[in-house]
Write a structure and sequence with these properties.
Mean pLDDT: 80
CATH architecture: Orthogonal Bundle
Helix content: 25-40%
Number of helices: 8
Strand content: 5-15%
Shape: globular
Number of strands: 5
Distance between the termini: 29 Å
Number of domains: 1
CATH superfamily: Transferase(Phosphotransferase) domain 1
Length: 256
Amino acid sequence: MHTLQGVLKSHNNPMPMRNIGGVEFGDATRDLMSAIVAVHSRQMLHLDIKPSNIVLLPADPTSRVHCKPRLALCDFGHAMTLTEAKATENRMVLQSMFWRAPEMFWGAIPTGAVDVWSLGVVLAQLWTWRHPEGHGEWLATPIFEPIEVDDQWSQMGHADWEMAVLQEISHCLGPPPALWAPKPCGDQKFREEALKKWRRFRTLASSQTKRLFPIFERGIVRDLVQSFLRWPHDSRATVSDALREWRTKGVTDELM
């Protein structure tokens, strides 16, 4: 069984992919949104959505529902119920860094919006098919992986990596809204450390220039991804609403 990450890494052609192992891009987008809606409908959060945790399932000729290949979520090792998520006070919920929602860098209580952000990162990675400025590996490069990858990065600590990723997000999307700030949970010491990191980041982000991102020719996809990639978690679109609109418009690759 192939993962999405494996499919992306195996694409060595500098031309855009026509499909993902036989799955059209429009269908792949629908498959991933449907999977997250199913998880959230069970009052669960996945919390580790990334290409290596997405598998390509082959077509089942005996099934009327799954007669075509499709994408599905796997690896629920970080998943938790909404009740469990609310009980994470005083400890960080760790996610894979390049797909991590901004609020989670400061120790917020995870919500469904965390999965929404990660899905937006995956979809942007799929639809842009390479880094917005042409850096890094084809397709397999996460869109918020810092560009300046050289020998010094291997010597950086975890906190420096976090700050570099946050700056990359700010460089792509622009700095956070002036009146928005994360709400770290936990005891006073935990909150003070988180807010100290926040103030440091705000100082760095205020001096950055936003670049055009994501670079999409397809307006429908651009609007979808941008609705998922918003700094404030409560301003992101819900996946159920996005999926409903996707189905209502009858989105196919030919329409985009």
